[in-house]
């Protein structure tokens, strides 16, 4: 367990260093070390600390948040192919963000509107799935899929009536874009706090993954634990979507691949998901800003290009 996490930590550190060094202007390892040690006060310092570092940290935090949320959703729904967006959270966040953009709000208000939209979508899906009785994983899943379709229709309507000069920013946000992330540390703090808070619950999550009846028979308080998972997964997804927009496949592929490699122990899967998800999104964002430099691609395009064939391969192998 310690060895696996150590390897993932080293890979994450190398990915972040690679992201800082590579770009339209390449920074040598010696210059990077000079900036880290505080001996460089010129252009390289501005480039690394003011531009690349916030973007790299934002990408790592968002990737880790989505991967941990995906691992939680797969336990909650007892479906290995569930992901953080399956309950329509990204649709609610996107609707809130696009409404703020239409109103001409700044990025701070856009982020706040996205977070509020994600939380509203969470409450809406849970309320509709609960109904007059109690919700089940299948009922929650179906309600989320239908609600996501409704959010998609609302987003399409807004894009259809949006003035042409506002469309590029909206489309980039919908496809996932890290270039506007300037406050990365709250996301990293939320990710760290979530992983620390989830470690004591890992044993109960292992039991819950086998089914609610077995978990209840073994003394697990099933309903409070499911509520905790749902609220935490929603909070993590909302935080990620608020900072970098809608980025797919990270929360689906990373936990699923880690389970194939490391097993099903949530004590290992949850911190490993945070490290591997952050590493994947950092590398994807580095590729997005260098493949056609000086132009940039939305990072959501890169994750989709990587995620679609990987998903189909996993689906074929699990038939």
From TrEMBL:
Cross-referenced InterPro entries: ABC_BtuC-like, ABC_transptr_permease_BtuC
Main location: membrane
Membrane topology listed for this record: Multi-pass membrane protein
PROSITE patterns hit by this protein: PROKAR_LIPOPROTEIN (PS51257)
Alphabetic keyword roster: Cell membrane, Membrane, Transmembrane, Transmembrane helix, Transport
Membrane-traversing stretches: 57-77, 84-103, 109-128, 140-165, 185-208, 229-256, 297-316
One Pfam family this sequence matches: FecCD
Localization of this protein: Cell membrane
Similarity section: Belongs to the binding-protein-dependent transport system permease family. FecCD subfamily.
Name of protein: Iron ABC transporter permease
Organism: Marinobacter daepoensis
Lineage, opening ranks: Bacteria, Pseudomonadati, Pseudomonadota, Gammaproteobacteria, Pseudomonadales
């Amino acid at each position: 367990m310690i060895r696996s996490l150590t390897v993932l930590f080293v890979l994450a550190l190398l990915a972040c260093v690679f992201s800082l060094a590579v770009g339209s202007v390449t920074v040598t390892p010696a210059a990077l070390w000079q900036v880290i040690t505080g001996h460089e006060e010129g252009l390289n310092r501005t480039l690394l600390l003011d531009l690349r570092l916030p973007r790299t940290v934002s990408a790592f935090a968002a990737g880790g948040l989505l991967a941990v949320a995906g691992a939680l959703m797969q336990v909650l729904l007892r479906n290995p192919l569930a992901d953080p967006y399956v309950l329509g959270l990204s649709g609610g966040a996107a609707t809130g963000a696009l409404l703020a953009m239409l109103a001409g709000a700044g990025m701070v208000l856009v982020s706040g509107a996205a977070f509020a939209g994600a939380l509203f979508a969470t409450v809406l899906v849970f309320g509709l799935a609960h109904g007059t009785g109690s919700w089940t994983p299948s009922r929650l899943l179906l309600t989320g899929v239908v609600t996501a379709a409704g959010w998609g229709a609302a987003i399409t309507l807004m894009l259809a009536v949006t003035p042409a000069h506002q469309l590029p920013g909206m489309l980039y946000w919908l496809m996932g874009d890290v270039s506007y992330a300037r406050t990365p540390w709250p996301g990293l703090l939320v990710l760290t706090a979530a992983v620390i808070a989830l470690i004591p619950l890992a044993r109960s999550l292992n039991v819950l993954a086998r089914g609610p009846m077995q978990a209840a028979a073994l003394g697990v308080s099933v309903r409070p634990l499911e509520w905790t998972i749902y609220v935490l997964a929603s909070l993590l997804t909302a935080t990620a979507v608020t900072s970098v927009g809608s980025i797919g496949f990270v929360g689906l592929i990373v936990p699923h691949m880690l389970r194939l490699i490391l097993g099903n122990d949530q004590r290992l899967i949850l911190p490993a998901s945070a490290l591997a998800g952050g590493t994947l999104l950092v590398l994807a964002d580095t590729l997005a800003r260098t493949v056609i430099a000086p132009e940039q691609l939305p990072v959501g395009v890169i994750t989709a290009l990587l995620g679609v064939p990987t998903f189909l391969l996993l689906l074929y192998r699990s038939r």
